Amino acid sequence: MRILIACVLLGLPATQTSSQWVLEQSTLTYHVSHPLHQLDGVSHAARGKGVCRAGECEFLIAVSLRSFGSGDSNRDLHMLQVARGGLFPMVTVRTRLPEDASAAATIHADLEVQFAGQTVAYKGVPLQQTTQGDETRISGIIPATLTDFKIDPPSLLTIPVKNEIPVRVEMVWQRQK
Predict the structure, then answer these.
(1) How many angstroms separate the first and last alpha carbons of the chain?
(2) What is the tens place of the pLDDT at every residue in 64-75?
(3) How do residues 32-65 score in pLDDT, each as one tens digit?
(4) Residue 97 belongs to a domain with what CATH number?
(5) What is the dihedral of CA 116, 119, 121, 126, to 10 degrees?
(6) Is residue 1 situated within a structural domain?
(7) What's the domain count of the chain?
(8) 0.90 exceeded by the pTM?
(9) Distance CA 117, CA 120 (A)
(10) What would the pLDDT profile of 87-101 be if each residue is shown by its tens digit?
């Protein structure tokens, strides 16, 4: 059943799958910087699937905007409003990698991120990986900015936050047998 779901999500025929991956654990952290304070919004609720066939792997990761928390419910509500969370409640990331990329300690991934109604491509994002058995840990930073997604920087006391909103990614993927 999981193979079929992953194939439907990724548009792949179910009969040609050579291996599949499931996102077992995740921590996604966005960082916002303002002259008066710094804040992080964290989610542990990302879900993901990967399907490898013919030497290429396709991965899809999705997370609800509502799952991010900064420790301040008013701030989190404002983030949802600024990010147009009512219209676009999910963030998705897609990537394709050669299947032999699993041998490298650092992979350079081309990511397609859908957020706030916009799709942005980030080329060559360095991601560190360590593999032990059927489990692979991935970590890195997506160099996102507010203007990438056509979001006007919110302000506090008429001073806008910095445009940069780097997203730290820590994931544990499990190869399915």
Answers:
(1) 13
(2) 999 999 998 988
(3) 998 888 899 999 999 999 999 999 999 999 999 9
(4) 2.40.128.110
(5) 40
(6) no
(7) 1
(8) no
(9) 10
(10) 999 999 999 999 888
Q: Per the structure block, which two tokens stand in for 64?
A: 């609800």
* Residue 6 covered by a domain: no
- Cα(142)–Cα(121) distance, integer angstroms: 11
Q: Is 6 exposed, middle or buried (0-12, 13-18, 19+ CB in 10 A)?
A: buried
Q: What helix, strand, coil percent values describe the chain, rounded to 5?
A: 20, 55, 25
Tokens of 42: 């964290």
Residue with tokens 């990010």: 83
Residue 2 falls inside a structural domain: no
- Report how far residue 98's alpha carbon sits from residue 105's, in angstroms, rounded to the nearest whole number: 14
Q: Give residue 113's domain range.
A: 13-176
Q: What angle do CA 136, 142, 144 make, to 5 degrees?
A: 160
